[in-house]
Amino acid sequence: MLSGASGVGKTEIARRLMQLPAFARAVTATTRSPRPNERDGVDYHFLADAAFREKVARGEFLEHAEVHGRLYGTPREAVASIVRQGLICLLVIDVQGAATLRRNKAEGRFVFVAPPSEEELERRLRGRGTDSPAAISQRLAAARHEMAQSASYDAVVINDDLDRVVREIAALVISWRQ
Asked: Is residue 85 a contact partner of residue 24, using CB atoms and an 8 Å limit?
């Protein structure tokens, strides 16, 4: 499970890990709108609020949470399908989702991706150009809370060099499988 504050680089790290043959990413679901270049079924399953809640009621998610006013969840079948193939299932989930999975004793390891600094995180969030100044302030406040929970993870990596971070996470995960 890969977690970290919004804007820390989880999506790019996951994209690069997915280029390695042992990894497969479980596509999670959300009620937020797609960002430019995001594709339904590839980046997320983009669902209407009612459809998401129906899936929750049917028990189709391993975990689900509300984050920044939108719903997010991990479909059980997406994970099961990857595990059946003998691949490393990569989940990119928020801190709430990771906490739920730990409480439910989910199999797997948890990696927290931290920014090099709060200033750098703010620069990345502003650079995306997808959030209002108020939303960025909310994300930064949430990031402080999320970073305080990093001690509950199996590993913490600082995303100050993307290539190094990808190598480090891949090595950690492969060592945990042995």
From this structure: yes
